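$ ./design --mode recover --in tokens.txt
reading tokens...
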């Protein structure tokens, strides 16, 4: 699984002119699912995101996690994180999971965070055409890939 994590002051996702999810201070997470991903990737990535120390403490050091600040999360599915642009100018999405598998793992990711953490969780709708509004804080943007931790990067 791949994630682009942005530290935000606020963020919201709108679908067909209706606000589907909205958060205040916390993290906006764009989440992509790859062909070889499994429940192990879900739990590793979710725990990693929740424990990333990317919020400032009283001394101005990035020492606090979204858990520590009781921050909120907006989680958006984004298969384009698996776009391969090595050849030509049109991305190849062959490494992205098929939609059925991706939806299952995306929903497991949401459920895992909801079941294991007390933070407010909002999300978009899987595979919907979404408008995402973000007010970045910093900006701070982190890239994570569950395969890189094990040396399995595709």
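writing sequence...
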């Amino acid at each position: 699984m791949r994630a682009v994590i942005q530290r935000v002051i606020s963020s919201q996702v709108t679908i067909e002119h209706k606000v589907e999810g909205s958060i205040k201070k916390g993290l906006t997470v764009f989440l992509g699912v790859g062909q070889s991903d499994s429940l192990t990737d879900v739990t590793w990535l979710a725990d990693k995101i929740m424990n990333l120390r990317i919020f400032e403490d009283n001394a101005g050091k990035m020492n606090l996690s979204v858990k520590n600040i009781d921050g909120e999360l907006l989680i958006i599915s984004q298969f384009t994180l698996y776009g391969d642009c090595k050849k030509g100018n049109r991305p190849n999405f062959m490494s992205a999971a098929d939609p059925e598998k991706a939806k299952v793992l995306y929903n497991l990711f949401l459920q895992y965070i909801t079941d294991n953490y007390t933070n407010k969780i909002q999300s978009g709708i899987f595979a919907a055409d979404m408008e995402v509004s973000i007010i970045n804080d910093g900006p701070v943007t982190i890239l994570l890939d569950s395969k890189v931790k094990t040396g399995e990067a595709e």
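exit 0
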